[in-house]
Recover the amino acids of this structure.
Protein backbone atom coordinates (compact mmCIF):
# COMPACT_ATOMS: atom_id res chain seq x y z
CA UNK A 1 0.00 0.00 0.00
CA UNK A 2 1.17 3.54 -0.79
CA UNK A 3 0.12 6.31 1.59
CA UNK A 4 0.49 10.06 1.17
CA UNK A 5 0.51 11.93 4.47
CA UNK A 6 0.38 15.71 4.04
CA UNK A 7 1.19 17.98 6.98
CA UNK A 8 0.70 21.67 7.63
CA UNK A 9 3.87 23.26 9.07
CA UNK A 10 2.37 26.47 10.44
CA UNK A 11 3.09 26.02 14.13
CA UNK A 12 4.46 22.93 15.85
CA UNK A 13 1.28 21.01 16.64
CA UNK A 14 0.86 19.36 13.24
CA UNK A 15 4.51 18.25 13.16
CA UNK A 16 4.46 16.88 16.72
CA UNK A 17 1.31 14.85 15.91
CA UNK A 18 2.90 13.55 12.71
CA UNK A 19 5.93 12.31 14.63
CA UNK A 20 3.56 9.94 16.45
CA UNK A 21 1.40 8.99 13.48
CA UNK A 22 3.99 8.36 10.76
CA UNK A 23 5.52 5.24 12.42
CA UNK A 24 2.01 3.82 12.87
CA UNK A 25 1.16 4.38 9.19
CA UNK A 26 4.42 2.74 8.11
CA UNK A 27 3.12 -0.56 9.51
CA UNK A 28 0.56 -0.61 6.68
CA UNK A 29 2.74 0.35 3.73
CA UNK A 30 5.08 2.91 2.20
CA UNK A 31 4.46 6.44 3.49
CA UNK A 32 5.42 9.51 1.46
CA UNK A 33 5.44 12.78 3.40
CA UNK A 34 4.32 16.15 2.08
CA UNK A 35 4.92 19.33 4.09
CA UNK A 36 3.77 22.87 3.36
CA UNK A 37 4.10 25.98 5.49
CA UNK A 38 6.97 27.92 6.99
CA UNK A 39 6.40 28.62 10.71
CA UNK A 40 7.18 25.34 12.51
CA UNK A 41 10.20 25.02 14.82
CA UNK A 42 10.08 21.20 15.00
CA UNK A 43 11.27 18.76 12.34
CA UNK A 44 10.11 15.33 11.23
CA UNK A 45 12.32 12.31 11.81
CA UNK A 46 11.59 10.89 8.35
CA UNK A 47 12.55 12.13 4.89
CA UNK A 48 10.08 14.55 3.29
CA UNK A 49 9.28 13.72 -0.35
CA UNK A 50 7.29 16.86 -1.21
CA UNK A 51 8.00 20.26 0.34
CA UNK A 52 5.76 23.13 -0.77
CA UNK A 53 5.34 26.75 0.24
CA UNK A 54 1.56 26.38 0.59
CA UNK A 55 -0.46 29.03 2.39
CA UNK A 56 0.68 29.94 5.91
CA UNK A 57 -0.20 32.47 8.55
CA UNK A 58 2.83 34.58 9.50
CA UNK A 59 3.07 35.25 13.24
CA UNK A 60 3.86 38.75 14.43
CA UNK A 61 5.66 39.77 17.64
CA UNK A 62 2.77 41.51 19.37
CA UNK A 63 0.40 38.61 19.94
CA UNK A 64 -1.35 38.26 16.60
CA UNK A 65 -1.21 37.24 12.97
CA UNK A 66 0.82 39.59 10.77
CA UNK A 67 -1.79 40.08 8.04
CA UNK A 68 0.39 41.99 5.58
CA UNK A 69 3.26 39.50 5.77
CA UNK A 70 0.74 36.65 5.48
CA UNK A 71 -0.75 38.22 2.37
CA UNK A 72 2.69 38.85 0.82
CA UNK A 73 3.72 35.24 1.40
CA UNK A 74 0.81 33.86 -0.63
CA UNK A 75 1.58 32.81 -4.20
CA UNK A 76 -1.51 31.46 -5.95
CA UNK A 77 0.31 30.62 -9.19
CA UNK A 78 2.87 28.48 -7.34
CA UNK A 79 0.09 26.89 -5.26
CA UNK A 80 -1.71 25.76 -8.45
CA UNK A 81 1.54 24.50 -9.98
CA UNK A 82 2.38 22.49 -6.86
CA UNK A 83 -1.16 21.13 -6.71
CA UNK A 84 -0.99 19.90 -10.31
CA UNK A 85 2.41 18.27 -9.78
CA UNK A 86 1.14 15.70 -7.29
CA UNK A 87 0.74 12.13 -8.67
CA UNK A 88 -2.28 11.40 -6.50
CA UNK A 89 -3.41 8.32 -8.44
CA UNK A 90 -0.24 6.55 -7.25
CA UNK A 91 -1.62 6.39 -3.70
CA UNK A 92 -4.10 4.04 -2.03
CA UNK A 93 -4.71 6.41 0.87
CA UNK A 94 -4.28 10.18 1.18
CA UNK A 95 -4.35 11.82 4.61
CA UNK A 96 -3.96 15.51 5.30
CA UNK A 97 -3.37 17.30 8.58
CA UNK A 98 -4.89 20.64 7.55
CA UNK A 99 -2.58 20.79 4.51
CA UNK A 100 -4.11 22.73 1.59
CA UNK A 101 -2.05 21.69 -1.46
CA UNK A 102 -2.93 17.99 -1.27
CA UNK A 103 -6.46 18.72 -0.05
CA UNK A 104 -7.39 20.89 -3.02
CA UNK A 105 -5.55 18.62 -5.46
CA UNK A 106 -7.72 15.74 -4.26
CA UNK A 107 -10.90 17.80 -4.47
CA UNK A 108 -10.22 19.00 -8.01
CA UNK A 109 -9.23 15.51 -9.22
CA UNK A 110 -12.16 13.79 -7.53
CA UNK A 111 -9.95 11.64 -5.30
CA UNK A 112 -11.02 10.83 -1.74
CA UNK A 113 -8.93 12.08 1.18
CA UNK A 114 -9.09 11.97 4.96
CA UNK A 115 -8.73 15.12 7.04
CA UNK A 116 -6.95 14.03 10.23
CA UNK A 117 -6.38 17.08 12.42
CA UNK A 118 -7.56 19.25 15.27
CA UNK A 119 -9.14 21.56 12.69
CA UNK A 120 -11.20 18.64 11.37
CA UNK A 121 -13.14 18.68 14.64
CA UNK A 122 -14.54 22.10 13.67
CA UNK A 123 -16.71 20.37 11.09
CA UNK A 124 -18.97 19.46 14.02
CA UNK A 125 -21.58 21.98 15.20
CA UNK A 126 -21.07 20.64 18.73
CA UNK A 127 -17.53 22.00 19.09
CA UNK A 128 -17.31 25.24 21.13
CA UNK A 129 -16.70 28.19 18.83
CA UNK A 130 -16.06 31.87 19.28
CA UNK A 131 -19.15 34.03 18.89
CA UNK A 132 -17.30 36.60 16.79
CA UNK A 133 -17.80 36.80 13.04
CA UNK A 134 -14.39 36.36 11.48
CA UNK A 135 -13.15 35.75 7.94
CA UNK A 136 -11.04 32.95 9.40
CA UNK A 137 -14.19 30.88 9.90
CA UNK A 138 -14.24 30.48 6.12
CA UNK A 139 -10.56 29.54 6.20
CA UNK A 140 -11.31 26.82 8.76
CA UNK A 141 -14.04 25.40 6.53
CA UNK A 142 -12.41 25.63 3.10
CA UNK A 143 -8.64 25.76 3.72
CA UNK A 144 -8.13 21.98 3.51
CA UNK A 145 -11.35 20.24 2.39
CA UNK A 146 -11.57 16.46 2.65
CA UNK A 147 -13.97 13.63 1.85
CA UNK A 148 -13.85 12.28 5.41
CA UNK A 149 -12.88 13.83 8.73
CA UNK A 150 -11.31 12.55 11.94
CA UNK A 151 -10.80 15.29 14.51
CA UNK A 152 -9.00 15.81 17.81
CA UNK A 153 -10.12 18.09 20.63
CA UNK A 154 -9.93 18.53 24.40
CA UNK A 155 -13.14 16.50 24.69
CA UNK A 156 -15.06 14.02 22.50
CA UNK A 157 -17.69 16.51 21.38
CA UNK A 158 -18.85 14.29 18.48
CA UNK A 159 -18.57 10.70 17.22
CA UNK A 160 -15.68 11.43 14.84
CA UNK A 161 -13.73 13.46 17.42
CA UNK A 162 -11.05 11.97 19.70
CA UNK A 163 -8.97 13.35 22.55
CA UNK A 164 -5.49 14.76 21.75
CA UNK A 165 -2.56 12.77 20.44
CA UNK A 166 -0.06 13.14 23.29
CA UNK A 167 3.52 12.60 22.18
CA UNK A 168 5.21 9.47 23.56
CA UNK A 169 8.06 11.60 24.91
CA UNK A 170 5.52 13.59 26.94
CA UNK A 171 3.83 10.45 28.27
CA UNK A 172 7.24 9.16 29.43
CA UNK A 173 8.26 12.32 31.30
CA UNK A 174 8.98 12.24 35.03
CA UNK A 175 6.67 14.92 36.40
CA UNK A 176 7.71 17.15 39.31
CA UNK A 177 7.19 20.71 40.54
CA UNK A 178 10.36 22.78 41.04
CA UNK A 179 8.34 25.98 41.32
CA UNK A 180 9.15 27.75 38.05
CA UNK A 181 6.67 28.59 35.31
CA UNK A 182 7.30 27.72 31.66
CA UNK A 183 6.36 30.23 28.96
CA UNK A 184 5.87 29.60 25.23
CA UNK A 185 4.24 32.45 23.30
CA UNK A 186 5.73 32.36 19.78
CA UNK A 187 3.77 35.35 18.52
CA UNK A 188 5.04 37.66 21.30
CA UNK A 189 8.63 38.90 21.49
CA UNK A 190 10.57 38.16 24.68
CA UNK A 191 11.46 41.87 24.89
CA UNK A 192 7.80 42.52 25.68
CA UNK A 193 7.32 39.52 27.97
CA UNK A 194 10.36 39.96 30.23
CA UNK A 195 9.38 43.37 31.69
CA UNK A 196 5.91 42.04 32.53
CA UNK A 197 7.12 38.87 34.24
CA UNK A 198 9.88 40.69 36.17
CA UNK A 199 7.08 42.45 38.07
CA UNK A 200 6.46 39.12 39.84
CA UNK A 201 9.98 38.71 41.32
CA UNK A 202 9.05 35.89 43.70
CA UNK A 203 8.45 33.59 40.72
CA UNK A 204 11.08 32.11 38.42
CA UNK A 205 10.12 32.17 34.73
CA UNK A 206 11.55 30.10 31.86
CA UNK A 207 10.64 31.60 28.48
CA UNK A 208 11.21 29.69 25.23
CA UNK A 209 11.37 32.24 22.41
CA UNK A 210 11.62 31.78 18.65
CA UNK A 211 12.93 35.36 18.39
CA UNK A 212 16.40 34.73 19.88
CA UNK A 213 19.47 32.61 19.11
CA UNK A 214 21.27 32.72 22.46
CA UNK A 215 19.96 32.23 25.99
CA UNK A 216 20.06 35.07 28.50
CA UNK A 217 18.81 35.95 31.98
CA UNK A 218 17.22 39.11 33.30
CA UNK A 219 16.52 39.01 37.02
CA UNK A 220 14.05 36.21 37.75
CA UNK A 221 13.45 35.52 34.04
CA UNK A 222 15.50 33.06 31.98
CA UNK A 223 15.03 33.16 28.20
CA UNK A 224 16.00 30.26 25.94
CA UNK A 225 15.89 29.66 22.19
CA UNK A 226 13.49 26.96 21.02
CA UNK A 227 14.71 23.49 21.93
CA UNK A 228 12.27 20.58 22.12
CA UNK A 229 14.11 18.53 24.76
CA UNK A 230 14.82 21.55 26.97
CA UNK A 231 11.22 22.70 26.73
CA UNK A 232 9.89 19.25 27.66
CA UNK A 233 12.19 19.14 30.71
CA UNK A 234 11.12 22.63 31.77
CA UNK A 235 7.43 21.81 31.38
CA UNK A 236 7.69 18.49 33.23
CA UNK A 237 9.31 20.15 36.26
CA UNK A 238 7.23 23.35 36.18
CA UNK A 239 4.36 24.61 38.31
CA UNK A 240 2.49 25.65 35.19
CA UNK A 241 2.51 26.74 31.55
CA UNK A 242 1.76 30.19 30.14
CA UNK A 243 1.16 29.67 26.44
CA UNK A 244 -0.90 30.58 23.40
CA UNK A 245 -4.29 29.31 22.35
CA UNK A 246 -2.97 26.43 20.28
CA UNK A 247 -4.05 22.84 20.81
CA UNK A 248 -1.14 20.49 21.48
CA UNK A 249 0.69 22.69 24.01
CA UNK A 250 -2.30 23.22 26.31
CA UNK A 251 -3.29 19.56 25.89
CA UNK A 252 0.15 18.39 27.02
CA UNK A 253 0.08 20.70 30.04
CA UNK A 254 -3.37 19.41 31.04
CA UNK A 255 -2.24 15.81 30.57
CA UNK A 256 0.72 16.45 32.90
CA UNK A 257 -1.53 18.07 35.49
CA UNK A 258 0.11 21.50 35.19
CA UNK A 259 -1.57 24.83 35.86
CA UNK A 260 -2.46 26.47 32.58
CA UNK A 261 -2.98 30.07 31.42
CA UNK A 262 -3.60 30.74 27.72
CA UNK A 263 -3.24 33.85 25.58
CA UNK A 264 -4.94 33.22 22.21
CA UNK A 265 -3.46 35.07 19.26
CA UNK A 266 -5.43 38.08 18.09
CA UNK A 267 -7.20 37.57 14.75
CA UNK A 268 -6.61 33.80 14.89
CA UNK A 269 -10.04 32.17 14.91
CA UNK A 270 -8.90 28.66 15.82
CA UNK A 271 -7.00 29.86 18.89
CA UNK A 272 -9.94 32.00 19.96
CA UNK A 273 -12.16 28.90 19.78
CA UNK A 274 -9.63 26.78 21.68
CA UNK A 275 -9.49 29.38 24.44
CA UNK A 276 -13.28 29.49 24.55
CA UNK A 277 -13.35 25.70 25.00
CA UNK A 278 -10.65 25.80 27.69
CA UNK A 279 -12.55 28.49 29.56
CA UNK A 280 -15.45 26.03 29.87
CA UNK A 281 -13.03 23.74 31.75
CA UNK A 282 -12.20 26.58 34.14
CA UNK A 283 -8.88 27.50 32.52
CA UNK A 284 -8.08 31.24 32.74
CA UNK A 285 -7.67 33.21 29.51
CA UNK A 286 -6.02 36.54 28.67
CA UNK A 287 -8.00 37.88 25.72
CA UNK A 288 -6.55 40.28 23.17
CA UNK A 289 -8.81 43.05 24.44
CA UNK A 290 -7.02 43.01 27.81
CA UNK A 291 -3.93 45.30 27.77
CA UNK A 292 -3.04 44.66 31.44
CA UNK A 293 -1.83 41.08 31.89
CA UNK A 294 -0.30 41.50 35.33
CA UNK A 295 -3.43 41.09 37.54
CA UNK A 296 -4.47 37.93 35.64
CA UNK A 297 -1.00 36.39 35.88
CA UNK A 298 -0.70 37.26 39.59
CA UNK A 299 -4.04 35.62 40.34
CA UNK A 300 -3.09 32.55 38.30
CA UNK A 301 0.23 32.14 40.10
CA UNK A 302 -1.30 32.52 43.56
CA UNK A 303 -4.42 30.39 43.20
CA UNK A 304 -4.45 26.57 42.91
CA UNK A 305 -5.70 24.98 39.73
CA UNK A 306 -6.41 21.27 39.69
CA UNK A 307 -7.34 20.32 36.16
CA UNK A 308 -5.82 17.11 34.83
CA UNK A 309 -7.73 15.57 31.94
CA UNK A 310 -7.70 11.93 30.86
CA UNK A 311 -6.28 11.61 27.35
CA UNK A 312 -5.99 7.85 26.68
CA UNK A 313 -3.34 6.56 24.29
CA UNK A 314 -5.61 5.44 21.45
CA UNK A 315 -3.69 6.72 18.41
CA UNK A 316 -2.81 3.24 17.14
CA UNK A 317 -6.45 2.11 17.12
CA UNK A 318 -7.54 5.35 15.39
CA UNK A 319 -4.99 4.82 12.61
CA UNK A 320 -5.92 1.14 12.27
CA UNK A 321 -9.59 2.03 11.85
CA UNK A 322 -8.74 4.84 9.41
CA UNK A 323 -6.70 2.56 7.15
CA UNK A 324 -9.33 -0.21 7.15
CA UNK A 325 -12.18 2.20 6.37
CA UNK A 326 -10.67 4.53 3.78
CA UNK A 327 -7.77 2.84 1.93
CA UNK A 328 -8.53 2.16 -1.71
Amino acid sequence: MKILYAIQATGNGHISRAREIVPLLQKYGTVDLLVSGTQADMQLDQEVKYRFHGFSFVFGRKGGVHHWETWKSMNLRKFIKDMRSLPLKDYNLIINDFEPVSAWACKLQGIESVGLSHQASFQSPLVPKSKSIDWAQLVMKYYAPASHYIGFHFKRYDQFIYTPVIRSEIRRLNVSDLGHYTVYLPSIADKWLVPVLKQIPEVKWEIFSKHISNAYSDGNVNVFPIDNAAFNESLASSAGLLTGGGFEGPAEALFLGKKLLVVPMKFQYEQQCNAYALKQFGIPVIWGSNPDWLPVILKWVKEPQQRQLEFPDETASIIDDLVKRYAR
Q: What stands out?
A: Confidence is low (pLDDT under 50) at residues 60-72. The first helix runs from residue 13 to 25.
